[in-house]
Design brief:
- By secondary structure, this protein is mostly beta strands.
- It contains three helices and twelve strands; from the N terminus they run αβββββαβαββββββ.
- The chain is globular.
Length: 168
């Protein structure tokens, strides 16, 4: 538990907060776009949410320290590739510092040229609707312009572990 200081502010331990937040399992996705040099780029994310059905909006966030942040800001769109349970290695690849993440990867060009990765549980192609301050992250809101889903089991992340989303 965190205690309140005499100034009326709470002292939040970032490591303890991370452990608390890990109790809320999330799906795992790869946000993709094109660099200013027209190269495909992508990053593993677990910060993805539906915002609105009318208009169709979704959001995700990217750390301000991410090397690709300026590329996502510059491009007019992105894709959210929701990973399937059999794509754990892909999740790890796009979370790694490796630069050429698309080498040998099967993908197609979606709207605005954004990469849509094959074999995903689902994907959403979006036009950037807004970008907001989110503390040490920036929050990207996208308007969904195309989407697809499959019967594949989604990949989930919780308590620091990757696993299959179980359907009862």
């Amino acid at each position: 538990m965190n205690a309140m200081t005499g100034t009326g502010e709470f002292n939040i331990d970032p490591q303890a907060l991370r452990q608390t937040l890990s109790c809320f399992p999330t799906g795992v996705a790869i946000a993709t776009t094109r660099s200013r040099d027209d190269e495909p780029i992508g990053v593993t994310i677990s910060s993805f949410n539906s915002v609105s059905m009318d208009p169709p909006l979704v959001l995700w966030s990217l750390a301000r320290k991410a090397g690709s942040l300026s590329e996502y800001r510059a491009h007019r769109g992105f894709a959210i590739n929701i990973l399937s349970a059999d794509q754990v290695e892909l999740c790890k690849l796009f979370a790694s510092p490796q630069r050429d993440r698309f080498s040998g990867l099967e993908w197609v060009e979606g709207a605005h040229g954004v990469p849509c990765i094959a074999g995903c549980a689902a994907s959403l192609e979006c036009e950037t609707h807004a970008i907001h301050d989110g503390g040490d992250h920036e929050i990207f809101i996208g308007r969904v312009i195309a989407h697809m889903y499959s019967e594949k089991t989604p990949l989930a992340f919780g308590k620091g572990q990757l696993g299959a989303f179980a359907v009862a």
